[in-house]
Amino acid sequence: MYFPCRLKGRKPLRSFFSLWHQCFAREVKDVHLRKAPLTDLMDSVGYRTEKETVLSSIQGLIANNNHILPKYVPYALNCLQQAYRRIREDNLYSKCANVVVSRFKLSYQPPEGKAIDVEGILLYNINADNNVATYIAVLGFDSITAKDIILLKHIFYKRLAVKITEYEIVQHPCGYAGCATRKHFNCITGKLKTCCRPFRSFQEYIAGKDACQTYAKRHDIDFRARYSFVELTNDVSQCPNDELYGIIMADEGYSFVSSHTLNNTFEVDLSTRKTFSLYLSGLNGLIITRSNQGRDECKVQQEKFEKDLYNEDERHIKTESIKCHCIAGVMEEFFPTFLKGVEIHFLMNNILTSETEHNDRSYLNPVIFIRRSFKLWNILYELDVNRYHINTGIHNAFGINDTLEKVREEYMSILQHAINYLIIVFTLVQILIAII
Predict the structure, then answer these.
(1) Burial of residue 269 (number of CB atoms within 10 Å: 0-12, 13-18, 19+)
(2) How big is the chain by its Cα radius of gyration, in Å?
(3) Residue 8 — left, alpha, or beta (φ > 0 → left; ψ -120 to 50 → alpha)?
(4) HSE-up of 5 (CA within 13 Å, CB side)?
(5) 3-state secondary structure labels for all residues of 227-271
(6) Is the pLDDT of residue 368 over 60?
(7) Which helix H or strand E contains 296, and what residues bound it?
(8) Closest CA to 130 of 13, 212, 217, 282
(9) What is the DSSP string of 330-392?
């Protein structure tokens, strides 16, 4: 579940951008002096290390009482580090850093029936380019029914009361053999604390953690839990579509959904592999593993291909396939693109509605329409200039591409109005001077 918010102003990140521009200029100059191709910027281990060192300054800003695992800076976990690094061209321009806020066990006791206990971590990510910070609640579960997954989503949607017990965070080596036990988040799991605190909702738990983030002012967090991403890693090829629909849409009445709705929901598969499927509906994502064995074999074949046939320079980046992960979308590198889609949709919704921030509109008050044109320009700049971690399928599902045209039209309308307004003011001033 994703909970985005927008930082107020660029001041807290000003020192980072100063370091970033100096780093990028120095690397480009070094490439030019060597008369080498600019692709060295994305291939060289040294350049990547320097860039990640600069990004670690953002981690330092947002750390506070949160946990930085030194081996994986500026990323929170090994799997996140691998997911971002594998997308070389996008990672050259990416300005994301994240930390582990907490490692916890969530318990929910319904009025009737047995309790649900799931393991989880809370991540905090900042994208310096678009000034969006996102809390990401990651839950791991085994041997659970579709009804239970739907209830888990409703815990967030309806803000149901939960109990949370936190773990001490202890870093362990993360590897395929170590994760064969299928224990979630075992790479950062320490001793379970004895104190179990009741919360009115998980949102209250996040708000308590957010109170520690004092380095920067922020607008209110979008606590509606509208963005969700579920990954089913067991073989579910025989799972009926109505249950899958219930999971992706959190619809407890999935057994009564029409076949027409089911066909429309699962009509477009964004996966390029037959071993898994990726479906999007509204602001919800669902990855379904069709064959665990086939998925593992695909990774082995990819690794063997790169190892046996790649003859790379020793200074070049040697990528590794992701075999161990506890976060939805990480294994197939969909996490960065889904997160970017969440950020862009959040920014667009922010500017077009007053759901999380108040928006004024006026064609008479120049302060209001100039301020609004600047907000609209920021959206267009994010989509037109920061062209990394873009997935067209995700944007189409989120309605970003359709909304973009509305943003462009309004921006051009305000721009034309501002020019006309300036001409009228200038004309009036000339008339006044002539009269005087």
Answers:
(1) middle
(2) 24
(3) beta
(4) 20
(5) EEEEEECCCCCCCCHHHHHHHHHCCCCHHHCCHHHHHHHCCCCCC
(6) yes
(7) helix 292-309
(8) 13
(9) TTTT-HHHHHHHHHHHHHHHHHH--SSS-----SS-HHHHHHHHHHHHHHHHHHHT--SS--H
Residue type, position 41, single letter: L
Contact at 8 Å (CB) between 139 and 106?
yes
Give the tens place of pLDDT for each residue, 84-128: 998 889 999 999 999 999 999 999 999 988 899 999 999 999 999
Question: Whole-model pTM?
Answer: 0.91
Alpha-carbon gap, residue 312 to 299, rounded angstroms: 20
Q: Which helix (H) or strand (E) holds 394?
A: helix 392-398
Higher-confidence residue of 433 and 320: namely 433
Q: How confident is the model at residue 195 (pLDDT cuts 50, 70, 90)?
A: confident
User: What are the structure tokens assigned to 116, written together?
Assistant: 């649900």
Q: Provide φ and ψ at 355, rounded to 5°.
A: -70, -40
Written as six digits, the tokens of 377 are: 């320009």
Report, as an integer, the average pLDDT of 286-295.
86
Cβ atoms of 317 and 307 within 8 Å: the answer is no
Residue 182, pLDDT > 70, answer no
Q: The dihedral of CA 409, 411, 415, 417: what is its sign?
A: positive
| Core vs surface per residue 71-87: b (16+ CB within 10 A) or e | ebbbbbbbbbbbbbbbb
The position carrying tokens 């462009």 is: 408
Cis preceding linkage at 12, omega within 30: no
Are 351 and 379 a contacting pair, CB within 8 Å? yes
Name residue, tokens 């002096």. Answer: 33
The letter for the amino acid at 232 is L
Residue 319 reports pLDDT greater than 80 = no
